[in-house]
């Protein structure tokens, strides 16, 4: 005798056709699409971290949990990453470390490993983040002096030299700076700062936060005499937040031997131990490691580090060319005043009185699928600043998409922007493709329109 199924038969679904009604066709001549949402499709994240993650990095992380013991694949991955951090930082002399932390954790690791309570450091301010590093040092018992930079500008190496010359007793143990500040958009001239330390004859350590620069713009740890450098996984390294790579040079390692702020978690000496778990002071961040391993392959092997620097440089020029064109009527301008001090990873923009940047950000995110960076820091005019990031996993296509949505948003809001922003950006990109220079392209456009 057969068994009767206990699963009910699906009920018939009533449809419009069953009811005998007809679908009324839309008017063939309908052209009024005002209010349509244009965000349904690929979305673009133009934040200065976390940045967009390549599909191959996500795929490398999409795997089951693995054995963290026994010297297998995971341990090999750790050693390969620590080894490849050296060409990333451009060092043969430094020792590399990898913390389960964000960039702020990297700051604390540096302070803990190098200083004792009461030591003094000089912080070179050029935005928000070097100041933040100094605030962390102060909270840990280090004496902090801040040397301000000119408004909307980079660190002044001459001022650094003068201050260090005045420190005849050598009270200042280290100089702390960022290469790129994502709040201000400033890119500091690290070789000139190094030269200032040398000209002053001062023995202070030179510590650099490269969170927003390493992997995107030239950084030469050994050649520039950097004693300690740190970065984060979530920007140029195209990996989710949570890892803080660090490189400590010989002078930093020497200072570490007498540092009184060392704790077990951050301690380089402990992490130099023979056991794999010591590299992380506990459980390894397994899937982040697989992601970072794949991103380093992309950056160092498949593209090449110097090619990545060139890509960022050209895309940054494209962004700035668009902003210059849009700002012809005074509606907006690059936040950093001197072109040579503008970073190749993020471009903050100041808008004119009455043009609310948050309205633009909300419109592009909700209706265009593009998320622009919001204003941070104290130097920007309140409510009249936004940021366009162009770091990490970015291409001509993604940058043009961001710029196109930004221009569309500004026009929809009625901002009085100048013409030719996207054409100016395209001309910069064309120069990188081996054709006319951007200047020649601009001349050609002018000639055809005379």
Tell me the major beta sheet: 7 strands, mixed
- How large is the share of residues in beta strands? 5-15%
Net shape: globular
What Rg do the Cα atoms give?
A: 26 Å
End-to-end C-alpha gap: 92 Å
Order of helices and strands: EHHEHEHEHEHEEEHHHHEEHEEHHH
Uncertain runs are: 1-17, 441-450
Helix content range of the residues, please? 25-40%
Structural class category: alpha/beta
Mean pLDDT: 92
List the total number of helices: 14
Strand ordering within the main sheet: 2-8-7-6-5-3-4
Number of strands: 12
What does this structure look like?
The protein is an alpha/beta fold and 450 residues long. 38% of the residues lie in helices and 13% in strands. It is built from 14 helices and 12 strands. It has a 7-stranded mixed β-sheet with strand order 2-8-7-6-5-3-4, sandwiched between helices. Strands 9-10-12 form a 3-stranded antiparallel β-sheet. Strands 1-11 form a two-stranded parallel sheet. Helix 4 links the parallel strand 3 (120-124) and strand 4 (143-147). It is globular and about 80 Å long. The model is unreliable at 1-17 and 441-450 (pLDDT under 50).
């Amino acid at each position: 005798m057969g068994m009767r199924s206990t699963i009910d038969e699906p009920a018939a679904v009533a449809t419009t056709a069953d009811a005998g009604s007809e679908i009324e066709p839309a008017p063939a001549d309908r052209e009024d699409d005002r209010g349509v949402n244009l965000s349904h499709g690929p979305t673009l994240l133009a934040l200065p971290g976390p940045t967009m993650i390549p599909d191959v990095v996500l795929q490398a992380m999409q795997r089951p949990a693995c054995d963290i013991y026994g010297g297998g694949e995971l341990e090999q991955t750790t050693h390969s990453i620590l080894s490849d951090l050296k060409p990333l930082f451009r060092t043969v002399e430094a020792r590399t470390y990898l913390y389960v932390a964000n960039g702020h954790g990297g700051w604390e690791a540096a302070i803990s490993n190098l200083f004792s309570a009461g030591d003094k450091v000089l912080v070179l301010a050029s935005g928000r983040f070097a100041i933040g590093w100094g605030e962390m040092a102060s909270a840990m018992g280090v004496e902090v002096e801040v040397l301000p930079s000119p408004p909307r500008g980079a660190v002044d190496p001459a001022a650094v030299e003068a201050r260090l010359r005045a420190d005849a007793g050598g009270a200042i143990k280290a100089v702390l700076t960022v290469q790129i500040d994502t709040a201000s958009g400033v890119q500091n001239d690290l070789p000139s700062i190094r030269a200032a330390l040398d000209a002053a004859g001062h023995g202070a350590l030179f510590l650099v936060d490269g969170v927003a620069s390493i992997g995107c713009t030239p950084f030469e740890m050994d050649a520039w005499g950097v004693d300690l450098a740190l970065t984060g996984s979530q920007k140029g390294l195209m990996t989710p937040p949570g890892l803080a790579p660090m490189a400590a040079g010989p002078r930093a390692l020497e200072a570490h031997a007498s540092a009184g702020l060392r704790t077990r978690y951050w301690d380089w000496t402990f992490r130099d131990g023979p056991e794999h778990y010591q590299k992380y002071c506990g459980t390894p961040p397994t899937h982040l490691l697989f992601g970072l391993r794949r991103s380093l392959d992309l950056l160092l092997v498949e593209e090449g580090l110097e090619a990545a620097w060139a890509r960022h440089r050209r895309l940054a020029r494209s962004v700035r060319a668009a902003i210059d064109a849009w700002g012809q009527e005074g509606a907006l301008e690059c936040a950093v005043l001197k072109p040579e001090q503008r970073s190749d990873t993020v471009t903050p923009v100041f808008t004119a009185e009455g043009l609310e940047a948050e309205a633009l950000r909300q419109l592009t995110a909700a209706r265009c699928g593009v998320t622009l960076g919001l204003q941070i820091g104290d130097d920007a005019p309140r409510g009249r600043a936004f940021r366009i990031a162009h770091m990490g996993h970015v291409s001509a296509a993604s940058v043009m998409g961001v710029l196109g949505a930004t221009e569309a948003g500004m026009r929809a809001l009625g901002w009085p922007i100048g013409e030719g922003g996207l054409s100016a950006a395209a001309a910069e990109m064309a120069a990188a493709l081996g054709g006319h220079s951007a200047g020649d392209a601009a001349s050609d456009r002018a000639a055809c329109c005379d």
